[in-house]
Amino acid sequence: LEVSRFPYFYIDQSRSTFARHLRGDLKRPDYFVGIRGVGLIGFDVKAKTVYRGCLIFDVEEIRRLANFGMLFNVSVYFACLKPRDAGAWWAWMPDLALRAPLPGGKGTISVPVRELQSVSFQEPFDVALGEALRR
Description:
The chain is of the alpha+beta class.
């Protein structure tokens, strides 16, 4: 973001900065990026481990982030940092919210990394964003 010179800001995640009546229903993204003519896009950054070619996501966290996106009319993505790489995988919250949880009642979903948008930190942010918006 710094190199691409997009405006962004970090969101304070402390409970005291969030409306009490929404605390169990919403989760705030970590960052907002301002896009001229579009508005804000939220990113919740995660350090994930790849298991058998997949990333595992918590269904409740997805639900709460998707609720945030719907309430505030903001697109929200997970930006999952790639281990030992200068990049990330992006996953759009509404796409994740449509997936069925894994059997066994663990409240998680598994997503093959090949189905996520691969982003290199060597490419400009606007190139990655353009790709994400075309999906």
